[in-house]
Q: What sequence folds into this?
């Protein structure tokens, strides 16, 4: 296994601040960083989503190590917490299922590589852009019906032909079936309290999934090595090439999101109501407090909805003469 001690110093150098927390990073950049980690508890448990709301005082460097602690490569790591008043660093002890000797965590991809449900509940996210480069997952992303940026020719319905596409689907689904059977019968050993079948049974894709076009053997040999600046430049360049075919789809998603945001702000400015989840008065008392009657509020709601309603244009009917 790797020694985690040098990684603390390396992460501190990359972050620029050794003891920066999730909340401090959000206050400096106004960007949300979310990391996942799994519990080393023998009873399992839901994966943890670490960000400035759920873990404001957790050190980012300790969260990165926990999120990277793959069994047999890096031992489970503790989460470090900074006291916001004194600045003292202590180990997270947790509570309930994560108390005492279970306060060590490992790679979150063992349970939730793409925690879409948790992100949706916490940040109201509905569209997910996923970058997937795990070598054991890339072979499962074969779009036999075409994908954004790589559509099929108009005279072909299946990539590689129907026989090869059906064989690919059969092999893929057979592997998933066997992994699910092994998981249900608990045939795999529970090393580090991890269900290894989850590495294949999770949902790894998103609404927009970015993957490399091919899986190169050279990348697999470089997994356990520190990348050099030249290798990092190659990674960045290939990452750009992976995103370019999906740019139009990403642009359209953002266009819809921006339109809804503008609509929401216009309605808020019209009704002079601040909360996001209550854009209009819900009771007579609240309407009177805002200086409006329920009838006027209802009329404003109808007028605003009418302004932003998409109407289908119909062509005028041709009059026929008898």
A:
């Amino acid at each position: 296994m790797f020694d985690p001690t040098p990684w603390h110093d390396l992460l501190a150098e990359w972050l620029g601040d050794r003891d920066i927390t999730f909340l401090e990073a959000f206050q400096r950049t106004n960007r949300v960083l979310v990391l996942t980690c799994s519990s080393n508890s023998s009873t399992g448990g839901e994966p943890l989503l670490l960000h400035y709301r759920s873990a404001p005082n957790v050190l980012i460097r300790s969260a990165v190590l926990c999120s990277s602690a793959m069994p047999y490569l890096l031992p489970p790591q503790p989460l470090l917490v900074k006291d916001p008043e004194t600045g003292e660093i202590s180990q997270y002890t947790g509570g309930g299922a994560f108390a005492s000797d279970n306060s060590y965590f490992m790679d979150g991809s063992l349970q939730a590589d793409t925690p879409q449900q948790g992100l949706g509940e916490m940040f109201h996210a509905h569209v997910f852009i996923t970058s997937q480069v795990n070598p054991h997952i890339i072979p499962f992303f074969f779009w036999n019906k075409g994908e954004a940026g790589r559509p099929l020719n108009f005279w072909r319905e299946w990539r590689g032909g129907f026989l090869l596409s059906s064989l690919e689907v059969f092999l893929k689904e057979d592997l998933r079936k066997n992994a699910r059977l092994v998981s249900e019968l608990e045939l795999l050993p529970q090393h580090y309290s991890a269900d290894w079948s989850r590495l294949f049974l999770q949902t790894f894709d998103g609404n927009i999934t970015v993957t490399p076009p091919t899986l190169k053997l050279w990348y697999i040999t470089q997994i356990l090595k520190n990348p050099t600046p030249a290798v990092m430049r190659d990674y960045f360049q290939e990452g750009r090439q992976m995103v370019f075919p999906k740019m139009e789809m990403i642009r359209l998603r953002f266009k819809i999101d921006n339109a809804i945001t503008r609509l929401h702000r216009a309605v808020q400015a019209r009704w002079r109501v601040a909360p996001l989840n209550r854009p209009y008065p819900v009771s007579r008392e609240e309407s009177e407090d805002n200086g409006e009657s329920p009838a006027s509020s209802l009329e404003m709601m109808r007028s605003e909805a009418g302004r932003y309603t998409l109407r289908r244009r119909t062509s005028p009917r041709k009059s026929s003469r008898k």
Notes: Residues 144-203 form one domain. Confidence is low (pLDDT under 50) at residues 96-101, 276-298, 308-322.
